[in-house]
Design goal:
Six copies of one chain form a homohexamer. The first copy, chain A, contains seven helices and ten strands. Chain A has 242 residues and is of the alpha/beta class. In chain A, strands 1, 2, 3, 4, 5, 6, 9 and 10 form an eight-stranded mixed beta sheet that branches. In chain A, strands 7-8 form a two-stranded antiparallel sheet. Chains A, B, C, D, E, F: GO terms for molecular function: metal ion binding.
Chain lengths: 242, 242, 242, 242, 242, 242
């Protein structure tokens, strides 16, 4: 008996496009306004690249600890395997894998990543690690993870299913939650809050760009960031004048 | 899409009775003979008692990290809640809860434990902690856990379902696997291996009782434990003479 | 430049007396209603006793890591030393020591604890450990800590001051915040929230006592805990009938 | 090529007897006077008893991580096994086992402990855990460890030798170093420093007994502990008057 | 009541210049000669650059754990805020922030770093992490930290003050202690020891440069490093001949 | 009394050459076929380079925790020192150092690495860290480690010997075991299994190269990886046709 996603809100392409202009840092600040402090996935950092931001709905994978009679290369022939999970991934999804933070076994290598690229998966995010670093980088799949290990997943992990609620890096992820990942890591937005985060976040980015200009000019921080009433007016004036 | 239990082998009451004579230490040694090194649940230790051994099939609970809009006291009204899970527990089962090793929020307190006693649940095992220590001990429910914390589960955990495969203390647990717990902690036996573990384990216990007598008499360890051919013969003779 | 306590609200003796009837578990649940999830001090557990509840205002101590030229037995002669801090403690206060979770050096031994008893300090709480277990227990001072170590504080810690804001076990403590400690550990209540927690908490304890009776009678959990409208009415009726 | 013990100083029985009057806390303070801050073995705590102090020379055991083809029950038949090591232990020694802090496999169970008792081994100290808690307590061997686990050592550890330099709980132990263990844990004294620690330590214990009396009388701490010149004179007078 | 800096020794510009020729590795070795083993700040590593060495006096910041009612974006308006602290930083100082090793919330982002550059702060050092990696690197402020996280400080930390004694990465830092940071991390020199470390350190660097030449020529290590009497003479001769 | 290497099997140069074509990832998979799950050394990652694979026999070093009277710069003059160990290293060996995972003291700096290059040591692998990052990279010695720290080994470690069995990153290493290290880290092959791993591993690499081609063409994963009977036939046909 498993909980289903707590929201099935429709999210427009325009909202997702707007969200692509919002940094993960700003996303966490907008979520804090709603009382949510657990959205950033500890350990999931860019794997060998910089300067990318990816946005999309979560497709979850779940691992439990190794059981030696089940976690074997032979298990990859079973209907419930990472292979079948990949074939179920829709175009544009972001695969989020709960590896329980295990760093001694790589969940995926080059062959699986290459297949995900073929299926147009947007990115792979995990609180665990990858294996076959050179090969994975070669596929071009954007990956956020803790690093790399030589052993395969079956050395320490048993794959048990997909599109269930999971934990990843200390945050709860439900299928179809919206994921944003960039140089500061990966964050999850509960589906119901995506409209709020996208619009408030875009406004926040605008204000920060004005703040940067002010600090560049030599303004002092107190009263400016966050702005007091006078500075709020100056900011509004600047916005109109753009 | 979730993996179901890999075995539905029938286990007789006689086998379970035999297993009640086998220590958790011996269970792990028997499983090692089958190549299984991950069966003991780290962190799950007897909570305020000593000298009990409990055996029964696993009923699993699963938590993921807190999501502040979902993990609230109000969530306990939902159909997927720890309350509903308890009402689904069959008599004699052992409840095994995956709390991801979190030690800052107690998964259950006295009221839920009292209801589990009413439902004749045999024991509760978790890699997390309890709350309301005094009250929980008062219910008499045998609990294996890491200790106690004042905050409720919703402070750090979101409950997401029951009778799925879980991890607990670094071991994989499938529903209806057989659990054995005593003063040395709690172990899981994959359902297919229960017959083997019960019978080989009981024999192993017998041999250890003979070894203890021999060491008491002053015998040296090399050649005795494990026994060489001569000592194997002496043991067999002793067995017949009992 | 240090932040002072964010509240200097007056708290009546009656409120503190009411708070003595509220468990630490209930305190954390009341604080959660106000959005506060960090109040329980991880690692601070009863040291060799059970069944006590202590309530009082915080008097804080602060340690930083060892600096070998400063953290020496000679440092105990300085005006800023743990000795002077103890002489500054008011009757009835609860001493809360930020030991940064260090478990390899005991912050206090029997002589300092004995002096705290003479000064009528109500309790000592730390995320570190004690030394001289036998002697400390002998003084009768109620202590919440992680355990015991033989080395003195100067082996790993430098004492730097008292009655500053500190961290203890992952929670922020300001001087004169109200501390509650019992078998489930120790929690801090921001001074502004003490009235709310005491009154709502006492009502919550009453309802839990009714719930226990209902479960004892065999009631099912869903609808009862938390109570639906019907059960709320039954509870109100019971309250009036007492 | 292994380092041998850096000292072979002779230690009289009288010195060891004097050391039996010195707490582990005082031992660490005396060692600090000689610049030694790493002597207490983290994790090695009394296993199911209180009020004992044991003193004796170290006999070391060394484990490395499991290698599945070597760490098997069959390995116990090898000449380099824990069994052979026990037969090599001299009467009165304290066995100190480097288990690398591993808490998922018990290094010894009841049969090996019983044999150590027969060989008049004074105590067993480890930064790991035991197995078969009930049986081990039954042998009466004083054990300092981190707790208990059901699996045997071969589940996670490979035994590789005895009487080599080891690490235990973050301290370096050389064979024949002197070990002191009591309620505050276990400490190692480099052989060259034993005379100093025993004599200075006994004097320190005496002064602490006087301090306790003074605090009992209501004396303030500053100037008393540590004593200023006036209090040093009072202490000396007290000593003479005994 | 807080301890003030234990030294106010004057340090000449010439000494600081000499110190700029000394590696952090050599600084730790010179401090070890004075019995100081805790000077390197664990976790504070160069953030996106290589080949820099920065020297200057410490300006400290202190955080405690989050308290949800205090750690909010609104708190940045308070007089005791990170904003005010930055305005108090003198030119040439090195800001050292005690983030308690927290890696889930970035203490500063691009706007605050930009203001620090405007104020001619020499560097920022923390045992925590930054946020807004791209923007921070763009400011050119040299930062030593554990990495990056998307959430702001208020997600996990409460700022409580500046220029107090702090811990950072396991070392104690007092205001105006001298900090040296390079590719091997960041170290603190107690103010009283700066003259010693600068002069002995510079000599040590010279000897190491000679050693490198000798090893390049094929000399064996024993007797050379550290040098025996013969090699000491050879080194002295080389020094004179330069 | 120390265990000697469990195998002295002769390994041909041809086998080592074949092994140079096998990734560390494949090595761990081949070892898993033999029941060995502990071969990858956690923490030992390439230090400032990419794209290298090194193969050779292990020469082990062993450290225990610091003992302040022994772990001093003066200790480097002793016959049992890291200096003497380096002079004992044979050409082509891979030095594997058990630093107990300590990250606060660098085991070696530039001078020792330079000498190892002169002695034609193939690589240095440790679960600890290096010091003098710039200098070490300058020597060109391939190093796998956890990173860098300024303090020297004597700050936290005591060197006790060489060519004994050790633990490194959670794996057991015996002298002359064969080590393979590349971008995915470092693994150990028990000497008896080298022939098997080299030959089976090379075949496995070939099959993976075919799999990559198939996935590139758009093949689905189930049935392909691992291959079912039909795909096994296709693979065999491809092998013949090369």
């Amino acid at each position: 008996m498993t909980m289903t996603s707590p929201s099935t809100a429709t999210i427009s392409a325009a909202t997702l496009d707007l969200l692509r202009t919002v940094t993960t840092g700003t996303v966490t600040t907008m979520l804090l306004k709603k009382g949510i402090r657990h959205a950033w996935m500890k350990g999931a950092m860019p794997f060998g690249f910089t300067g990318k931001r990816i946005v999309g709905p979560a497709f979850t994978l779940r691992f439990v600890p190794v059981r030696e009679d089940l976690a074997t290369p032979a298990s990859w022939l079973n209907p419930i395997s990472t292979r079948s999970a990949i074939e179920a991934m829709p175009e544009g999804c972001i695969c989020v894998a709960d590896a329980m933070g295990v760093t001694g076994a790589g969940i995926f290598g080059d062959i699986l990543c290459m297949r995900m690229v073929k299926r147009k998966v947007a990115a792979l995010i995990t609180d665990g690690v990858m294996r076959d670093k050179h090969g994975v980088l070669g596929t071009g799949l954007p990956v956020w993870c803790q690093g790399v290990a030589a052993p395969a997943s079956v050395n320490m992990l048993t794959f048990v299913g997909w599109n269930e609620p999971i934990g990843c890096g200390g945050s709860a992820i439900f299928p179809d939650d919206i994921i944003v990942a960039d140089d500061d890591g990966a964050v999850v937005i509960p589906r119901d809050l995506v409209e709020f985060v996208a619009h408030e976040g875009a406004e926040h980015e605008l204000m920060e760009s004005w703040l940067v200009q002010e600090v560049e000019k030599g303004e002092r921080l107190p009263g400016l960031y966050p702005p007091n009433d006078e500075n709020k007016k100056r900011y509004e004036a600047w916005k109109k004048s753009r």
